[in-house]
Amino acid sequence: MAPEPLQSTENSQIPRKISPLVSTTSNRPGLRPHDLVVELRQLYQFQTVLRKSEEAWRNRYSFLLSKVTHETRIAKYFSQPGILEDPRNHCVRILDSFRDPILPKVEFLVMPSLRRYADPEFGTVGEVVDFVTQLIEGMDFMHSHHIAHGYIFKRSIILVATNYRMNSDLTTQNIMMDARPIIPSGWHFVAHNREPDGFTSISPLARIDHPVRYIIIDFDCSIEADSKNPPLILGFGGRDGDPPEYQTRKPYDPFKIDVFTLGNVFYKDLYMKYEGLDFLPTIIDYMKTVDFRERPTADQVMHHWINVRGHIDVNRARWRLQKRRGTIAERIIFDTMAFALEGMNRVKRMIAGET
Q1: pTM exceeds 0.85 for this model
Q2: Which residue ranges does the record annotate as region Disordered (predicted)?
């Protein structure tokens, strides 16, 4: 029996090009049918891109299939009025939700379409500074509401994109970004290096000139704590196996796990990848303090980072990042170009009367 088409909600509409059993690949060489066709059963494997009926195609949305759990409740909590508007809130926004008519324990969550935070890669020192600031700010915000993410990892931080999986802790798996400022034309929901037509290559703009917002996703392993009695728990594991607490059988603080794993993101994905980030070791070492009892809180990390950031020369903002494998000649050429570009921008600001 053929799967029933998923019904549109009041605010969302499924485009014909990805409606069930509709193929539009016959005149588009290089695209496979499943690039444009999504059956209901495939929603367990792929995300479907939605659009609001009154908005243009490039203002895309995605929805995620999820069981009705505390994860959906936490995600909705951070999307409610009064909390959603807080500029420190970097949790993924839930735009809409609806239950499966046949499986009441299954819920569809509608959210902005996000992109992995490192796709495209960072280009300048200033972009890294902004990334670190936003992520520490987002962690501090969650903790101020007595919720530990439990899995801040690479994929939990996102530039707003599609095809991400629900995992759990402040690692790279749970970090995304809203990439619309740098990819205003949008991108194909399967071939992320292509525009929505599936053929044209995307041409990302520089984040230093078009700032993006980083987003934390995946709350399936998040912990809600009593504001007066922060919990000490056991068995709270995530993708990052480095926290020393995981090597013991003693209770530990899940909020301090967030601090450590986010510090590990900064270490592995930034400091070990790029040169010229000499300001990072101090914050990384602080966040990765071995004894979790001595490890700082998110609020303390935020204050420490603000102090570190205040000592970074603003003229370094446009310095081009060099991967550690880059040659000395390449570094000299690109840093000279970056210095010249920064000089031009300073002259423009002076002419415009800006400081």
Answers
A1: no
A2: 1-27
Please classify residue 108 by burial: count the beta carbons closer than 10 Å to its beta carbon, then call 0-12 exposed, 13-18 middle and 19+ buried.
Answer: buried
pLDDT tens for each residue of 211-223: 999 999 988 778 8
Cα(240)–Cα(347) distance, integer angstroms: 45
Per-residue H/E/C for 94-108: CCEEEECCCCCCEEE
Question: Hey, what are 13's tokens?
Answer: 């509409």
Neighbours of 130 (CB within 10 A): 20
How many distinct structural domains can be found in the chain? 3
Instruction: Tell me what pLDDT residue 4 has.
Output: 46
What are 155's two structure tokens?
């994929």
Q: Write out the residue range of the structural domain in which residue 341 sits.
A: 325-351
pLDDT greater than 80 at residue 320: yes
> pLDDT confidence of 44, banded at 50, 70, 90?
very low
Q: What is the predicted pLDDT for the residue at 30? A: 54
> Do residues 331 and 134 make contact, with C-beta atoms less than 8 angstroms apart?
no
Percent of the chain with pLDDT over 70: 63
Q: What is the CATH number of the domain that holds 95?
A: 3.30.200
- What's 220's domain CATH number? 1.10.510.10
List residues bridging with 252 in a β-sheet: 233
